[in-house]
């Protein structure tokens, strides 16, 4: 399944990874939390950054926090 959040589409797992990034998880934490390989985490992050058009995890985390807050309002 995929989600369209403000014209940005994410798969379920990408949304999980993005949420964990927004919570301050590093790659190793994400690996241990989701039981996936570090390569898979890196692939998800690359896709997330590309989909958002940003160049850093911090920018992605800020986008996620702002978007999720707006959706909750």
Tell me the CATH topology.
Arc Repressor Mutant, subunit A
CATH class: Mainly Alpha
What's the number of domains?
Answer: 1
Q: How many strands appear in the DSSP assignment? A: 2
Helical percent range?
A: 55-70%
Low-confidence spans: none
Distance between the amino and carboxyl termini: 24 Å
Which keywords apply here?
single chain; 73 residues; mainly alpha; Arc Repressor Mutant, subunit A; two-stranded antiparallel sheet; 68% helix
Question: Can you give a write-up of this model?
Answer:
68% of the residues lie in helices and 11% in strands. It is mainly alpha-helical. The chain has one domain (2-72): Orthogonal Bundle (Arc Repressor Mutant, subunit A). It has a two-stranded antiparallel sheet. α1 packs across α3 (38-52) and α1 (12-22) crosses α4. The longest helix has 16 residues, at 57-72.
Q: Care to give the gist of this entry?
A:
By secondary structure, the protein is mostly helical.
